Amino acid sequence: MISNRIKSARKYRKLTQEELAKKINSTKSTISNYENSYSSPSAEVISMLADALETSTDYLLEKTDEIEIKQKYYDLTKKDENDIEKELEKILSNLDSSDGLAFSGEPLDDETRELLSISLERSLRFARQESKRKFTPKKFRDKDSD
């Protein structure tokens, strides 16, 4: 039953019902109702639960017994995430200097700086994934990946 799968995945990830509820913008009582089979989550909520529990919808729907999602060889690791964060901080600190980026001689306002930060982070993530996808030797790639 999906109720058992939600509960086992939550415990596997060492999350409380309250923590899981926050991750999907719900309440502790809703999670409790799902886990005790008092109510059933919609397809949209199942997808949100799978993302929050870092598992697949197939696991929650009992189509597979594997709780872990196999990562692709080009997925970002914790080290990649840390490297991207450091690079982003370095770029943004350079923009804050007196000779940094300005629009028509005006310094960046907070909103524009935040939008630029988001855009740069996405670009750095994409570049890192693409370089992993293109330059990982074939012998280290997953057999079932593209």
Descriptive overview:
GO terms for molecular function: DNA binding. Residues 6-60 form the HTH cro/C1-type domain. It holds the Pfam family HTH_3. The chain folds into two domains: 2-60, 434 Repressor (Amino-terminal Domain) (Orthogonal Bundle), CATH 1.10.260; 78-140. α6 packs antiparallel against α7 (110-135). A two-stranded antiparallel sheet has the order 1-2. The protein is built from seven helices and two strands. The chain has 146 residues and is an all-alpha fold.
Topology record:
Layout: H1 2-12, H2 17-23, H3 28-35, H4 43-52, H5 57-60, H6 78-96, E1 102-103, E2 106-107, H7 110-135
Antiparallel strand pairs: 1-2
Helix pairs in contact: 2-3, 6-7
Q: What is the H/E order?
A: HHHHHHEEH
Helix content: 55-70%
SS strand fraction: under 5%
Structural class: mainly alpha
Terminal CA distance: 33 Å
Any key phrases for this structure?
434 Repressor (Amino-terminal Domain); 146 residues; Cro/C1-type_HTH; 7 helices; DNA binding; two-stranded antiparallel ribbon; flat; 2 domains; mainly alpha; single chain
